[in-house]
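Worked example

This section walks through a single chain of length 168. The input is the sequence exactly as stored; nothing has been trimmed or padded.
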Amino acid sequence: MSESESERRRRWITLGELIALAALIVSALGVWISWTSSGSDKPTRVVEQHQPVPLILRGIPDSDGSTMIIAPVNRDHALESMTVTIKGASPIDLSSDGRLSASDVQAALKDRPKEEKDHTYGLPVRIEAHYVELGADRRGGGAYVLRYKWESGGLFGGRSLKLMGLSR
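Given that input, the structure is written out below as tokens.
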């Protein structure tokens, strides 16, 4: 027995309807499972956790090199105080503005042998800072290299120290 063209089309329509009905049942089952499991759960509380960021400092000398502002790179760090330690010299205490004076560094280097003028030198320093991050008091710092050079200066041919920069 051979099917006519219209019977064959009706059979395919029926098969398509069965597939659509099965998809509808699976979808309804997924919605029901989602609805029943969410009713027993308490609301999810999302709390953003901030991890502390290590303190990294940068030094920005003024135009004539007589002072350098040492400040945190991260704007979320509020500097309270800072101590710059040069080996063999007394520590230099800085306030919250982080202003390091070339005269303080020059005084710390007074016992060292004279260095050439107009040549840039690097001086290892240890910086310890007290700062506030996200309302919490923190301490940080590390080893840095203070860049400086000696220049001719004064009426009597003296020399003066010019601060050039700060690096890790």
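What to look for: The longest strand covers residues 136-153.
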